[in-house]
Amino acid sequence: MRDTITADANAEQEKARRFREAALPYLDDAFALARYLLRNTADAEDAVQECYLRALRHFDSYHGPAIKPWLLTILRNVCNAEFARRGRQETPADFPHDRPAADEAPLWQEPAASPEAALLRRQDDATIRRLIAALPLAFREAIVLREVNDLSYQEIAAVAGVPVGTVMSRLARARTMLRSAWNAAEDAARSISGTPS
Amino acid sequence: MNCSECETLLHALIDGELDAGHSRDVEMHLATCAGCAEKLTAFRAMRQAMAAAALKDKASPHLRGRIEAMLPLPPARRSPHAPMPGQFAGPSRRSFFGGFAVGTALSAAVAATVVLAVFGGDRERTIADEVVSAHIRSLQPGHLMDVETSDQHTVKPWFDGKVDVAPPVIDLTAEGFTLLGGRLDYIDGEPVASVVYKRRKHVINLFVAQRLGAAHGNVTDRTIQGYNVRHWSAGGLDFWAVSDLDPAELDEFVQKISAALHDGRTP
Questions:
Q1: CB neighbour list of residue B234: distance below 8 Å, 6 or more residues apart
Q2: For chain A, how are helix, strand and coil distributed in percent, rounded to 5?
Q3: What is the rounded distance in angstroms from the CA atom of residue A149 to the CA atom of residue B180?
């Protein structure tokens, strides 16, 4: 009897050890995604902890190949539960100087096709993060999974639970919105600094 | 193809996710449509700017602590394994075991493997750690390359007189590994040549030296701090490949390099 208990405990320890080795390297990935999705550090930390708890619990049923998308899928489910808890209302973002963006806000505007519009000024990192954080959820998720978490389209499709074609169109729209916001931020910065445009 | 289709597909083109047929269609459209071509340029520039920016939040030590507390390491084994002949249980060996988390559940077979890895492998392990440190160092801004070119015939002569070997510089661009350049590094107190490759956003450092670790023909693999490390010997040289690339893709890289060395496909 005691042997059985010891064996079970040992199996649990061995599982925890394997899980540690496999999943801990992606802690930053998980936190970064949670941070962009929930737009709040404390909530993101809670979500990541919940994600790792669930992942450990289901680690027996994980059979490869890539653990990163598997983890991020769990994390996304945790975040969705958090959205439900918030009652479909996004909490105030704590990205610096962030304005909470209403989902599907019409910040999508085709920039005029001119040689000047093709030029892109360098934005500082904080501005780029703020612009990403202001995107509507589905587009924010696609662009973060791609540019921050470095997932392939196939993996993004698996995490977001949508076909690859949807991933492609979401990314296209996310980048178009981002580009408009990017140019708008550029114009705003120029008008504040008083430089003639 | 019309502009509306192209506007979506050009993102897949930028991301390297388009098959050959669609790539050709998109490129044909881009050649005749200034509007779409300009968008491609703008989105490429935006993507590069994003790749260069620090957009990834790091988990705080506090969060890391919380997660690690959920996953306790098994308690250290009280009695060490029976020492192998000629093997001493020094402090470095103890820390190695600590890192490896030897639990009581380890079967005799696994324990034997661990001991074998330690036996004569302490130095190998030290070098592996140094190789990973050198890789991480190289990822700091401005540290990756001393000579930056995708031309193997420029990289190879650059090493002349800097290291005591002529490292093979193999162009694997056609096979999906872009040659970025070369760098002089120091491992184990010796100058070592590093040939730098890239797949997607993942940098691969291939360290080459005359003697760096235990020589063996087989590839040994390990993971240190989340980086995958491969070591093998060929043609009197030691090779260490390090990257955060998927293990399978790093194996593919090693296989391609080995094959090219074997065929004598070096400049």
A1: B217, B258, B261, B262
A2: 70, 0, 30
A3: 23
The reply to whether omega before A65 is within 30° of 0 (cis) is: yes
- Most A CBs within 10 Å, among B56, B110, B136, to test the A interface: B56
Instruction: Say what the pTM is.
Output: 0.55
Q: Which residues of chain B make contact with A68, given a CB cutoff of 8 A?
A: none
Q: Label the pairing between strands B202-209 and B220-224.
A: unpaired
B139 close contact with A: CB closer than 8 A: no
Which CATH architecture does the domain made up of A115-193 adopt? Orthogonal Bundle (1.10)
Of chain B residues 55-94, which have a CB less than 8 A from chain A?
Answer: 55-60, 62-64, 66-68, 70-74
Distance from CA of B158 to the nearest CA of A (A): 33
In single-letter form, the type of residue at position B71 comes to L
Query: Under CATH, which architecture does the A2-85 domain have?
Result: Orthogonal Bundle (1.10)
CATH 2.60.370.10 fits B123-263, yes or no: no
Give me the interface pTM, i.e. the ipTM.
Answer: 0.77
pLDDT in tens, A63-106: 776 899 999 999 999 998 888 887 755 554 544 443 434 333 33
